[in-house]
Write a structure and sequence with these properties.
Elements lengths: L3 H10 L3 E6 L2 E6 L2 E6 L5 E5 L2 H10 L4 E2 L10 E5 L5 H13 L4 H8 L11
Helix pairs in contact: 1-3
Length: 122
């Protein structure tokens, strides 16, 4: 079972990530683009997710995945119950969401170990 602390640790380890609170939700972003958001009770994580894969993921694992709020349906977004994912899957979801908002060069540098988060990032 993944926890909010796992979300903070993993997201803070991704280069160029900043965090802030907007409407009682902690949001992780690169620049102005949000790639992850914790619910106020820290049980649900919204993450960037390919729109074309969203319905299939929700249908395949409805206990794990939830559709975004109606106002967010137009975005590449899905919600995840933290209690149903493990830390490995959480890291994959967050990293893939992060990849959706950084440039290809940044992602490639990260993959090559050339780019890391600042030492105080978590």
């Amino acid at each position: 079972m993944a926890t909010a602390e796992d979300v903070y640790r993993i997201a803070r380890s991704l280069p160029r990530t900043t965090e802030g609170v907007v409407r009682d939700r902690v949001r992780f972003r690169v620049g102005r683009i949000v790639y992850a958001s914790l619910s106020p009770d820290e049980t649900i994580l919204g993450v960037g997710f390919p729109k074309e894969e969203r319905e299939a993921a929700i249908a395949a694992e409805p206990d794990k995945f939830l559709p975004p709020a109606p106002a967010d349906l137009r975005y590449r977004w899905i919600r995840v119950r933290l209690a149903v994912v493990d830390e490995v899957e959480l890291r994959e979801l967050l990293t893939e969401a992060w990849r959706m908002v950084v440039g290809k060069r940044t992602a490639a540098a990260y993959d090559a170990g050339e780019l890391t988060a600042p030492p105080d990032a978590g």
